[in-house]
Design brief:
mainly alpha, Zincin-like, 2 domains, four-stranded mixed sheet
């Protein structure tokens, strides 16, 4: 029997995989054996060629990984593997809640097992080749196991609650789902740095020093009270540098990677922190959080609207009681809208980055911010010349070259 949703699901998998490959290929068209004139003052020839080789290696790796994932997903749909897995679980369990939980747990475990070889190769071949990887194999496997166990513990309880609410409320479940997911997102925003990060990295408060004094003086100048300044031992995993800033109400925390402190001068670090503080003062983090809440509401509303479509269930050779299989079909059909929402998110994020850069420029830090961006780009081998379509779709920040030109 012809089922429109079945062919839509297969078509979406094929179309969006092809679309991703075309966009990735377009990005390769900007590769050049000769350093572009506009990058001469940022990259020397040696660093430029190294960054090009890094991009090429990542491109080949991501192609192989995405093709593998695409074929695996296609096989699961074409040969009804989701339905077969569901049938096996149902033959051994009777409780509907437990059936759904075990189904998702097995899918997560399958995904986890297949991801390990790719993560291993990326870290110990590609990142090692370009001197980024600082992990030993023992640390890699400890991190991998920790991530798996933490994910299982967190998502087991959340999924249990969500599925239980769905089975009780049936019609209005999505509203409670929205409240729970929003609450969890807020919880992670507040406590990720204090609960999750310490399980992987050691965080220490920045000791009294010239840098700490400079940061406190900067915060006073910008009317931004901050006492929680931490250093994280990122160098035991990678040589790449970064920093992040978390806040909500009175919980503000600046976390500096030890690699960032090593790479930048105090003045350059202050420029980077000024940029992050302006994100807070312009409420960019709150804005993005609220947008994510709206996205979640839209997804769950559509999910409730299509919930009783027997055609979606039968498209996966399932019946309407297999809520977990139906969810998989729904999220494949949601792909086009998800792409649009992702692009909108990136557009807003890039606008916010320019705005934070401009406020930093007004506070006499623009030359130091340019120097910081140049150093971070060279040290991280960033692609300074992405294809405009690739950048439009995938970049949450403007390319470094555009940011520097804006600051100048």
């Amino acid at each position: 029997m012809f089922n429109l949703y079945y062919y839509l699901i297969i078509s979406f998998i094929l179309i969006f995989f092809t679309f991703d490959k075309i966009v990735d290929y377009l990005n390769t068209l900007n590769w050049s054996n000769k350093i572009p004139e506009e990058l001469n003052w940022i990259y020397d020839e040696e660093k430029y060629f190294k960054s090009q080789n890094y991009e090429k290696d990542k491109y080949k790796f991501n192609n192989i990984k995405s093709i593998f994932e695409f074929l695996l997903l296609l096989i699961f749909f074409i040969f009804w593997w989701f339905w077969h897995l569901d049938t096996i679980i149902r033959n051994n369990l009777e409780n509907k809640l437990l059936i759904s939980l075990v189904f998702f747990l097995l899918l997560f475990f399958i995904q986890f097992i297949f991801s390990i070889p790719f993560a291993y190769y990326f870290n110990f071949v590609i990142e090692e080749k370009f001197w980024f990887n600082k992990m030993n194999k023992k640390l890699f496997f400890i991190d991998t196991l920790k991530s798996f166990l933490i994910s299982i513990i967190i998502w087991w309880w959340i999924l249990t609650l969500l599925i239980w609410i769905y089975q009780i409320l049936w019609i209005n479940f999505w509203i409670i789902w929205w409240i729970i997911i929003t609450s969890f997102s807020l919880f992670m925003l507040l406590f990720y740095s204090t609960l999750i990060v310490p399980l992987f990295n050691k965080q220490e408060k920045l000791k009294d020093s010239e840098l700490k004094t400079s940061i406190i003086n900067l915060s006073k100048k910008l009317w931004f009270k901050i006492n929680n300044i931490y250093i994280i031992d990122w160098s035991k995993r990678s040589s790449k540098a970064n920093a992040y800033f978390t806040w909500f109400w009175n919980k503000k925390r600046i976390v500096l990677y030890d690699t960032l402190i090593k790479d930048l001068t105090n003045e350059e670090l202050l420029a980077v922190l000024s940029h992050e503080i302006w994100h807070y003062k312009k409420k960019h983090t709150l804005q993005m959080f609220l947008f994510s809440i709206i996205q979640t509401w839209l997804i769950l509303f559509l999910l409730s609207y299509f919930l009783w479509s027997k055609d979606i269930a039968s498209a996966l050779n399932s019946n309407e009681t297999s809520f977990h299989i139906w969810l998989i079909g729904f999220f494949i059909l949601f792909t086009p809208l998800n792409l649009i929402l992702s692009i909108i998110t990136n557009i807003i994020s890039r606008k916010n980055e320019y705005q934070a850069d401009n406020y930093t420029k007004e506070n006499w830090f623009w030359e130091n911010l340019i120097n910081a961006l140049k150093k971070l780009s060279k040290n991280n081998l960033s692609n300074l010349n992405p294809h405009k379509i690739y950048e439009f779709i995938h970049y949450s920040h403007p390319s470094v070259l555009k940011r520097i030109n804006n600051l100048k």
